[in-house]
Amino acid sequence: MAQREIIDKMIEHKHALLFVGGIATAIVGKKILESQTTKDYAAKGMAKVLTCKSELEESIQDIKDNAEDIHTDAKAAKKESVCVDITDDEE
Questions:
Q1: 20: number of Cβ within 10 Å
Q2: For the whole model, what pTM was predicted?
Q3: Helix (H) or strand (E) run with residue 37 in it
Q4: Half-sphere exposure of residue 46: CA atoms within 13 angstroms, side-chain side
Q5: Which end of the chain is least crowded, N or C, by CB within 10 Å?
């Protein structure tokens, strides 16, 4: 059988080839997902994500604290500017 004849038969039965290819992909994918190496990489990746999340939350809290301090200082400065001693102006 020549190579061209094989290709023609494969094209003729392309649905069967797609089905077999899908099954083979599922089997290989299952083996990869069940491997210990994949589980280790997934656990390490999740640990890094959780570390980044906690660091981000700390940074956001620091930003909030700084913003509250600035807001409090601005309020105090505004009160000082509103409360003027009028006795100094009369002299």
A1: 11
A2: 0.52
A3: helix 36-82
A4: 6
A5: C
